[in-house]
Amino acid sequence: MKDRDKQVSFRVNTLKTTDEQVLNKLHEWNIEVTPTSIPHAYITGEEIRTTTLIEKGEIYLQNLSAMIPALILDPKSQENILDMCAAPGGKTTQMCALASNKAFICAVEKDKFRAERLKHNLSLLGAKNVNVLVADALGLDRNMKFNKVLLDAPCSGSGTGNERIEQAWLERHTRLQRKLLSRAIDVTKVGGIVVYSTCSVLTCENEDVVADVLSTGRVEIARIDNTYNCPTATPTIPGVLSIKRQGPYEGFFVAKLRRIK
Ligand code: SAM
User: 154 CA distance to ligand 1 centroid (A)?
Assistant: First the structure.
C-alpha cells in the first residue's frame, strides 16, 4: 500500500471500456494498481495522471467514499432521477454507468462555470440521457416528481481534511442543506428514494439535517448496509452510513430516505 498522500483512486468508466482493458494497459505501463471492495474502483499512485486514460474518459479519478452515494441510490433503467447538485459530475457519470445510460437524469448545477465542467465530463465519459439544468435547485418546481433523488450537498469538506471552517459559514450552509433536502423530498414520488450525502464528518451537516426531515414524518430511514466494507464511525442515527477518513477513504456521510407521504 502506498503513502496516503500518494494514493489516488479511480473508477473504470464502463460506458467506454472494461476493467480488464484498463488493467491490461496499466500492466503494460508498469503501473501498480490495487483492487478495492467497490465495483470498478482501484487504488494506484500519482503516475496514473500521466496516462491517456483520464483524457480519453476511460477512467474517472474519484475518492472511494464519493463512489458510495450513487451505489446506494442504485439507479435503474427507465427511472427518472434528479441529481440536485451535480458538478463536476462524478456521481452523475457514475449513475449513467450504473444504469447503462438507460436512466433519465436531470442534473442541476447552480454555478455556470461548474456546469460547463459537468457538461464536458458527461461528453468525455459518454454519459447519455442527461438533461443539464443550470439553476438553483431551491427553485425546482414542487410539481416535478422523480423516482430517485441524489442530493450531494455543498458542505464544509471536513471529511477531506478541511479544518478551517468558520462558524458563520457553517450556520449558513447547514440552513442551505436543510432547505435543499426539504426540496429534494418535495420532488420525490411517494415511495421514492432520496440519498443525502456530504463529504463532511460534522454532525451538524449530517445527522442533524437528517433528523430534522425525519421529524416531519414525510420520510423514513431506508437502512444502509456497509456492503463495501468502508471504514465507518458510529452514526447518531441508526441505518445511515458515516465513513471515517482513513487510508484512501475520505470522511463521508450517506443517508437513504424513503418518502412515505
Ligand atoms: N455531486 C458532485 C460530484 O459528484 O461531482 C459534487 C457536488 S459538490 C459537493 C456541490 C455542488 O453543488 C457544487 O458544484 C455547487 O456549485 C452546487 N450547488 C450549491 N448550491 C446549489 C444550489 N442551490 N442549487 C444547485 N447547485 C448548487
Answer: 5
